[in-house]
Amino acid sequence: MLKNIKILVVEPDRSKAKDIIDALIGGGWSDVVVLASSSALDRNLRQHNPDIILIDLANPDRDTLEHISLVSQAKSRPVAMFVDHTDEGMTQAAIEAGLSAYVVNGLQMDRIKPVLETAIARFRLLSKMQAELDAAKLALSDRKTIDRAKGLIMRARGVCEEDAYKLMRKSAMDQGRKVIDVAHSLVTAADLLQ
Amino acid sequence: MIKIPIECGYLPLVDSAPLIIAKELQFAAEEGLNLSLVRQPSWSALRDMLAMGRLDFAHVLSPMPIAMSLGLGSMPAKIDTLMVLSANGTVIGVSSALDRAMRDEGWSNSFNNPVETAAALFSACEAPLRVGVPFPFSMQRMLLEYWLRSDPNFSPDKIDIITVPPPQMAQVVRDGHLDIFCVGEPWGTVAVQQSDATLILPSKSIWQFAPEKVLAARHDWVEDNPETCHAMIRAIYKAAKWLGQSENSPLAAEILARSHHLALPDHAIDPALTGLITTKVGEPPKQTPRFMTFHAGAANFPWRSQGRWIARQLVQLAPKGQSDFDSIAETCFRSDLFRAALSPMGVDLPGASEKVEGALQHPTAVASTKGEMILGPDAFFDGACFDIKS
Fold it and tell me: Model ipTM?
């Protein structure tokens, strides 16, 4: 089978992206481009003109791809592979693995399938990594604490959100602490004073 | 009693409140539902999960079920709208640069004047306006286009529509890639706080009763599970009624901020619920009545005429030759199911299932199943009326 398909992978996480490239190259596809930041997705699409775009289902930039696929002219027109539902099992597998694919340039299904199978296998493996999930949960709870602390500063000093964050960051730098630690102290103190 | 497990997808926006309240205040449990809320990162992801049966229900943009049923976009599927979750509650904002340019033209921000604001926009901006919307099939895009098209200086080459997911809108404005945007709260407020944006209009100043988010489910699944759908409609209806009472707003903000569903601080949630909108950093908030409506004026009723209005806005995106737009759109909006779910509860419902959209300038009494009820206002800013019979 000819494997001269140009694949664009949109993935901000560098190690994940590397795993996916390795899997694809291992499967025989060498023409793989990775886009870490999806800003200017439109321009990058025109520049690289890929045959297929692989993107994490959870990537918010999917909505932007969706828009581009609606307005682009017939030639470089990305189309979600899910359009024709030719292979519902494949679609289901992709969704379970957390993968979306947009097909450009009217590629045939039989040529897309092995690419997707490789990518799906890789995405499944990645999604099982518990460590990452834990890190994400921690980041989320950190963000909540920082938001609460920002809110406290905003109310107490009548400043905007950005200034509140700057104050916190300056305090952290002055004390040689992390911003999240300063936020924690603030939130704990505020709870005590209520 | 064993509760029926159901999963409902949503995006973290203030207008997902009816779902969160239905869960947290046990309205869903009272109806025998074990409701799980599943947060999604984008409208595309939410749509795919719903269409593929990974979710039973979803909180979606009001044009999405119609677009999917019409086969527009990447995931065609027969999707029903069971009820409206909220009317309005989105804001239009501009970058600080455009705000300055508009003020130089003598414009001042009353946050309530679409005509003068559109005129100032086009005279202040020489290059095409870069317009940010959250999704191609969104009420935000429809209202923005409806409004901008009405200006005498409008031409299609003067706007360039770009899709940006709501949580990224503020960042893209700050990076200088957008001149104007329309987004659901809290992301407009976030753009003011973080990106020095100015909010210039609430969506209700363009259409006073625009259906914003709806509860969607797969048509085939709805046909197979009518009782579960009725229970869900009743649970959300009760939650929306609770949210519609202004004395509950502070508690609602607290519940929304404390629950893990939104991961947003309460100062971001407050403005949409209270209608006190800060349009620019350093300026006092502007009182905006009916900014976001969860219940009043039969807000939850899925009017077939709303479905048709949306379908008419989608015509331009349709492939040539498709002609059954109106009937598909109309059958998407399941006012029949809504009636079947709520009549046994003794809820007063509108006498008709369609209305002339835009006809009510003021709250008006109309015929209902139990006598009379108050509807409206639902006027468009340009005074237009949309009658599906015409």
Answer: 0.79
